[in-house]
Amino acid sequence: MPKSLISSVPVLMYHHISPVDGAHTVSPDMFHKHLSILRERDIRILSIDEFSCWREGKLDIRQPSVLLTFDDAWLDNWVYAFPILQEFQANAIFFVVTSWPGDGKVRDHLLQEEAWEPKSHTVSMELAGTGRGDEVSMRWSELIAARDTGLVGIGCHSNTHGRWWNEGSSWAENLVGLKNDLEASRRAMKDKIGVCPIHWCWPKGLFSNRAFELASEYGFTSQFSTLRGSNSAGRKKLVRRFGVENKPPTWLEKRISVYGDPLLGGALGLIHQQLQGGRMAKRFKFASPGEFEFPLFKLI
Predict the structure, then answer these.
(1) Mean pLDDT across the chain, nearest whole number?
(2) Residue with more model confidence, 169 or 132
(3) What is the Cα–Cα distance from 287 to 291, expressed in whole angstroms?
(4) Residue 2 counted as domain residue
(5) How does DSSP classify residue 5?
(6) Is 276 a domain residue?
């Protein structure tokens, strides 16, 4: 009997892979265990191109599958995560904040030379995009080197990590700030890697109906969120993800089971999008009517 088609693909969201304990961080040993259990359970790790083709109905998948995503393109992704991805020949997509990477050469021997000390997420956020940003962010050369192995795709995580949400005194000014960021993101991507990808990841999980439309107008037609839920074949507005914690493989297996179930994952997704819409409406009270109104019975 042939296997039935897969109807939902869970998308995993990582930030740091580092021995430094803290928020948004999974240890290298635990990340290795995560990939080991995926291999043991015969769960396929899709490339971003495979995932996109599946969403568009151009690829049938009959094997339980996941997509791995990494937000911010931290240097520890290059030092710790990438070698493990290579070991397992596992695909992933790195979402880069385009104003953060430096222009130096590839750093191949940071661990061997003990010339680099990994930083916590809090410290990394303080240093990123500053004169010391090279201590915490991947360089463009390293992103390109990872991409050229065929294992890593590159997506856009904005140019300013969502700074436009805090700079406008009105909703119209916020949207102008978003447009400026989208333009800067496209320019940086084309200048540094030769092409602007279609994949966009909303910083801090903040978005609105108009923001989604604007990003689409600028060519970012594949948009990733922090909304939890199932991902089905057939293009919807947003790709849903769940944050991976520094917990054992049994924890990860349970989450994959939940979000791999289109009914259970879909129901949780509907609840989460209403909660998220309510939170954003409270934060941005001056927003235009309907900006954060999402369907009750349909995943966005």
Answers:
(1) 95
(2) 132
(3) 7
(4) no
(5) P
(6) no
Q: Is 105 helix (H, G, I), strand (E, B) or coil?
A: coil
Residue 129 within any structural domain of the chain: yes
- How many beta carbons lie within 10 A of that of residue 130, not counting itself? 12
pLDDT single digits (tens) 38-57? 999 999 999 999 999 999 99
Domain interval for residue 255? 11-263
Domain count, the chain: 1
Least confident range from 106-120, 127-141, 183-197, 201-215: namely 106-120
Are 96 and 71 in contact, with CB atoms under 8 Å apart? no
| Inter-residue contact 70 to 92 (CB < 8 Å) | yes
In angstroms, rounded to a whole number, what is the distance separating the alpha carbons of residues 108 and 51? Answer: 30
CATH number of residue 160's parent domain: 3.20.20.370
Task: Output the CA–CA distances (angstroms, integers) from residue 253 to 27, 36, 64, 248, 270, in the order listed.
Answer: 17, 12, 12, 9, 22
Q: Is residue 193 part of a domain?
A: yes
Q: By the 8 A CB rule, do 46 and 65 touch?
A: yes
Assess whether pLDDT exceeds 60 at residue 22.
Answer: yes
pLDDT at residue 297, rounded to an integer = 86
d(Cα 230, Cα 239) in Å, to the nearest integer?
A: 9
Q: Return d(Cα 223, Cα 114) in angstroms, integer.
A: 37
Give the number of other Cβ atoms within 10 Å of residue 117's Cβ: 8
Check whether 247 has a pLDDT greater than 90.
Answer: yes
